Amino acid sequence: MGGITRRLVCLSLLPVLLTACSANAVGLVAALLPSPAESLPSADLPQLARYLPAAVIPAPQLPSQQPDDVMATDEPAPSAEPGEAPPPEIAPVPKMKVALTFDDGPTRGNTEPLLELLASYDARCTFFVIGSRAEAFPDLILAITAGGHTIGNHTYDHKSLKAAGAEVSVRKTNDIVESITGKAPVLLRPPYGAWHKGVAEGFGMRIVLWSVDSRDWELRDGQKAAEIVLRDVREGSIILMHDVKTYSIEGAEIVLRALTERGYEFVPVEELTGYR
Ligand SMILES: [Zn+2]
């Protein structure tokens, strides 16, 4: 009875033991598997991924934003779905630069609204001033520089650089501007675009012509002048306008609005790429 009985007892216990072993095995695997709600350090994820189906790997937990941290905007906040990486930062696209230049001022009643307009478009430009007008309106010269614009020389009396006395006209204008702002202009725009090499070299100044002529003074129509600019402008253009008449300021507003929409940035002429 002894040997046979022991074997029978053992055989009868076998299903119980096997059941117990199976239960232990299931418990062990369950312990190794992370709970979906449990967050693992991200460094463990690649190693774990070799052994577990993808569905088991917990998604990295994105930091939740508290309402106080969120700035109020009209745009819906970007959704952060579980498992979705935060969007990469996109570098801003460099803007195309263009130089607006205004000649023959400053003039009372036109330069001030133009400066307000330029400020509203975050535009910085170049003013080629007449020396006698700078002398008459030093406050406007200071307002121009305060707006971040550059002041260039357009002679004292709009004299051609080819005419006798041109050098005096240029030097006098430099002195006037320097007495107002503390800085003499280094840019010189010849009236009528007429100049000769010796004049510029003699002054140690840089001659600045233009690549787009709005013809505002000739058309006497801001809309038509703006249409010429918007037709001919390219990246790096130097645009000629005037801050003498109201229609020119109206034309400038059209140009500022349209070129801003096209992605242009307005800079003083010396900041154009390749200018130096
Ligand atoms: Zn002029």
Name the descriptors.
276 residues, alpha/beta, TIM Barrel, 6-stranded parallel beta sheet, two-stranded parallel sheet, 10 helices, 11% strand, globular, disordered N terminus, binds zinc ion
Rg estimate, integer Å: 38 Å
Could you state the order of secondary-structure elements as H and E? HHEHEHHEHEHEEHHEHE
Detail the poorly predicted runs: 1-5, 8-80
How large a portion of the residues is in β-strands, by DSSP E? 5-15%
CATH architecture of the domain at 99-271: Alpha-Beta Barrel
Mean pLDDT score: 77
How would you sum up the global shape?
globular
Major beta-sheet overview: 6 strands, parallel
Helix content: 40-55%
**Distinct ligands, ions and cofactors found in the model:** zinc ion
What is the count of β-strands? 8
CATH class of the domain at 99-271: Alpha Beta
Task: Give the full name of the CATH homologous superfamily of the domain at 99-271.
Answer: Glycoside hydrolase/deacetylase
- The number of helical segments is 10
CATH names the topology of the domain at 99-271 as TIM Barrel
N- to C-terminal separation? 113 Å
